[in-house]
Amino acid sequence: MKHLLLIISWKRTMVLSICILAMLIVLNFYGIYTNKFYFLKPDNYIFPILAIVHFVYLYVVQFKIREDEVPDIQMRNLEYALYIILFVYLYKLVDSLNNLLSFAIYKDHLLPDPFKFMSVLILYLYLMLLLLTFISFKHRKDQVGKYVFDDFNQNIDSWD
Fold first, then answer.
1. Which domain holds residue 53?
2. Residue 155 forms part of a structural domain
3. Helix boundaries (H) for the chain
4. How many domains does the chain have?
5. Residues 6+ away with beta carbon under 8 Å from 30
6. Pure H helices in 42-72
């Protein structure tokens, strides 16, 4: 894990996560079976809304690292929300794998030419997003610090 963290630094993790999230938000509207974009389906807006939590988490961790601050309760709650969103990412990964494996079932039907390529690309992006999210948790733990509940009350200024 140490070698992986040296290769993928916090800056690289953040930039790659932002790029992958942006690509997945666009590809979330793409229908691989029809080779069209669907902007009027309400289901397609769930992932972009959940990705906002991921963007905010990346910003908060970057801010805490830059300002050399300790983790706080809001950051902990944001990370816990991201733990739940990880299940959505995992579901989307399994769904993408299911779409890719359905190629054998529907090969006799007329599928668009970029079906395989787009399925593999989306699957790879979700896999990378999961990996980078776990790496960002490790970077947060190493660079910002652990969530120590005893220290939370010591860092509160009661005159604010």
1. 2-145
2. no
3. 2-7, 10-27, 46-67, 73-101, 115-139, 149-152
4. 1
5. 36, 37, 38, 118
6. 46-67
- The mean pLDDT of the chain is 90
Residue 157, in any domain of the structure: no
- d(CA 160, CA 157) in angstroms, rounded, equals 6
Q: At what angle do helices 115-139 and 46-67 cross, to 10 degrees?
A: 30
The answer to whether residue 152 sits within a structural domain is no
Contacts of residue 53, Cβ cutoff 8 Å, sequence gap at least 6? 78, 81, 82, 85
Q: CA 32 from chain center: how many Å?
A: 21
pLDDT tens digits for 126-158?
999 999 999 999 999 999 988 876 655 565 654
Is residue 8 domain-resident? yes
Only one residue has tokens 């990964």, namely 93
Burial of 45 (0-12, 13-18, 19+ CB in 10 A): middle
